[in-house]
Design a protein that fits this description.
- One of its GO terms (cellular component) is cytosol.
- It comes from Microbacterium ginsengisoli.
- The protein has about 375 residues and is mainly α.
- It is built from 16 helices and five strands.
Length: about 375
């Protein structure tokens, strides 16, 4: 039994040959011994003809049977109509819950092309949604390896942050909320604290009116107000455009987080502090954290930016949940991380003897 698309193509080819010969449905029907209405059903792909009838139609239109049975649409208009029929019969279109467009002679080619263009875009987005998990893993892996190759260090952003801090009058110690506000004002922004931000947003930036909306208190998990404000400013400073894909999104997120870390723990001051601590043989995340008034995780991650580049010390940063699944990682010290077939480590379970995991068992 032929498929609906095959029948539709066959119908278009019969109609094309009939039109070329200048025959009406009734005239062709009289030549082959069937009613015009019967031929109409065949031409519209609603009925499958017998092979003997097809041979008669071929003879009546001076065609070869193989020509009528070809899978190629006879002309561009037929190709558009067949593609539209295929699109409207698919699962994606049915999910939309809208009635199909009825094709008639009066429907312009341009209209069909527009509908097909919309459908192709829906298909592209559907494929992108399906590919997202693997795409995310690959993009995360590529970014992690690329940052490892450059010591997790971004010199241009380091210098930009110090320039902005100097312009705001910050010369040392923990960065104050007042200084962060000054940095925002110098970029034409006003920081506004509101309690009705969308749950999915850490901050909202109104570029037209120069406002950055922030929650009234820090978000659990180390997302301090200073850091969130600095990240929002970083998009403007770094000239970010809407991300083109997930990899671009990850790169932008890394850059704004990096800028915030540079502003909270400036390179010059941080390196001086770490140099003295190394000299005293007392390098500790806790001391670095307290010196700049940041979270333990922020301090640890910032040390990965600086210790290899300035002190040639290889290290790793590893965050896991209670079951040992990796949620965040950086390493350049050959830490044997578990990986999936794509090389991704996120979500993989580390050895139960890793200190990052065994710490959960300590009382």
């Amino acid at each position: 039994m032929a498929t609906s698309i095959e029948l539709s193509t066959l119908g278009h080819r019969i109609r094309h040959r009939r039109s070329e010969k200048g025959l009406t449905l009734d005239e062709l029907g009289a030549l082959v011994g069937v009613a015009g209405s019967h031929l109409s059903l065949i031409e519209n792909g609603k009925r499958e003809p017998k092979l003997s009838l097809l041979q008669q139609i071929a003879d009546a239109t001076d065609s070869q049977l193989s020509d009528l049975l070809s899978s190629e649409p006879p002309n561009r208009r037929a190709a558009l109509e067949i593609e539209l029929e295929r699109a409207q019969g698919g699962h994606l279109f049915r999910q939309l819950g809208i009635p199909p467009v009825k094709v008639s002679k009066g429907l312009p080619d341009e209209t069909i092309e527009t509908i097909l263009g919309l459908h192709r875009e829906l298909q592209r987005r559907e494929r992108a949604t399906i590919a997202t998990p693997e795409e995310a893993r690959r993009a995360n892996t590529d970014l992690r390896l690329r940052m490892r190759d450059q010591d997790n260090y971004l010199g241009d952003i380091e210098r930009l942050a110090e320039k902005q801090l100097k312009a705001a009058g910050h010369h040392g110690g923990a960065l104050t909320h007042r200084t962060v506000s000054i940095m925002a004002e110098q970029l034409g922004f006003e920081l506004i604290y509101v309690s009705d931000l969308p749950h999915s947003a850490r901050s909202v930036t109104d570029l037209e009116n120069g406002r950055i909306y922030l929650p009234p208190a820090s978000i659990p998990g180390g997302h301090g107000l200073r850091s969130m404000a600095l990240q929002a400013m970083a998009h403007r400073l770094l000239g970010h455009k809407p991300p083109t894909d997930y990899a671009d999104f990850l790169q932008q997120r890394l850059e704004i987080n990096y800028y915030a870390a540079c502003a909270l723990m400036p390179e010059t001051q941080s390196v001086a502090f770490l140099q003295q601590a190394k000299k005293d043989r007392n390098l500790a995340v806790e001391d670095f954290r307290d010196a700049f008034g940041v979270t333990h995780e922020a301090a640890g991650m910032r040390m990965t930016n600086l210790l290899t580049r300035h002190f040639e010390i290889p290290l790793h940063f590893l965050r896991v949940d209670g079951a040992g699944a990796v949620s965040r990682v950086y390493e350049n010290d050959d830490l044997p991380l578990p990986m999936d077939v794509t090389g991704a480590v996120e979500g993989q379970v580390v050895c139960r003897w890793f200190s990052a995991r065994s710490a959960f068992a300590e009382q």
